[in-house]
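The pair is quoted verbatim below.
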Amino acid sequence: MTTRTRALLATLLIALATADGAAFAQTATPAEDEDDPPAAPRKPREARGTAKLRFGVDAVRLEAGHWPSAPEAERGATLRAQPFLQWQPDRRWELRLGARLDADWQDGGPRTFDRATADWGDSYLRLRHEDTRVTVGAQTIVWGRVDAVPVIDRVSRVDLRRFALDELSERRLPQWAVRWEQTLGEVKLDAVWLPRFQAAAFPVDGSVWHPVNRARAQVIGVEPAPALAPFFRGARIEQQEDGSGGVALRATRAGDSLDLGLTVAHTRQPLPYFRLEPAQGRLVSLHPYTRFAAIDGEMAVGGATFRMELGYTLDQPLTARDGRMLRAHALDWIGAVEFFPGGKDTRVNLQLVAHEARVDEPVLEVKRFVGANGEVETRFGQDRWKASMRFAVGFNVRDTYVAPRLAFIGWEPHEFYVAAHLFSGEDRALAGFHRQHDALVIGVKTKF
């Protein structure tokens, strides 16, 4: 373990040792206000002489895993923590300074590494005045009514360092933004300007979760290219993130039985598109501008909640058979239902997903996809244990992901868990790309 990693681990241990315990909040089912940054801990530490300065550590995770059949490595570990200071001199003003500390380790194969990093967490200045709220700075903004893959999530920064193993809110990072929120009766307006775009966060080159598999000459979501194997083995992977991230506007209306939303955006695509440049010996990760419009709704009927998102994208990048980048129109739809069979102890969340890209030429990506995903969760043992199953499956494309999980939650604020992540599918499918990366993990999550 490197000196830098040891120093980061020491910093985390000191922060955790000095923070007071607070109840850990499990990621909730998405609601209209889920696009706010993570809330401060319930019982944060207060500085002496004032009740307005607070310190805490959010989203602490320590996890170790084993990959039985991965060619890159056999085992790995992850440590995440987000310490912060929050100052609120009165009801109108709020200042938050946060950091994100990460340490990753992978061993037992040809792709070993040991990396520790520190970056900005949610750090912003916020002003509240009557029905207006303005926030300037690095902030996590997640728009969407459904979890896992919300169509209208267009202004967030995506964290790809652990693929899709974590809940949606844990796969998003702060993005520099100016945000204006205005409430007008039952209508809420939410406008976002991204003056400085930040690309998606990648894992270390060679990580089992990296979106480029050099051994198979493949980018995730695209067919393998065996003829380009020598290029993939030696290509540099570069990210382009210069310029503005664009603008987006969302309007929502909360009704008695039906909530509605409208979103329009001219922003950079949150997920990266890889452009192959063999002559320059590089793979370039791009986030091209797209134009986007969507409607969404939520309705409660009896004991079930129904959610829907429908979006239309102009200028979505796709790859022609000869490697050229094409521009397509894409239609995405998600319908979801959440209910509690037999009472509050069991929760079922089911989602149907449909995607169609309209382009005249054959492409290397999947043009049409229909599938389902969701989660079944139950608590038992006087609410001290929680068992869950996340899944995703393709109907017209062979693509399967299953993640059983058992957690002990009887010692709040701590949650101890064991889980498995199982993948299978065809080459162009997301789970098919990771079909050799089945994982068994054990870990702990908490807040301070």
User: Anything to note?
Assistant: Confidence is low (pLDDT under 50) at residues 3-34, 36-51.
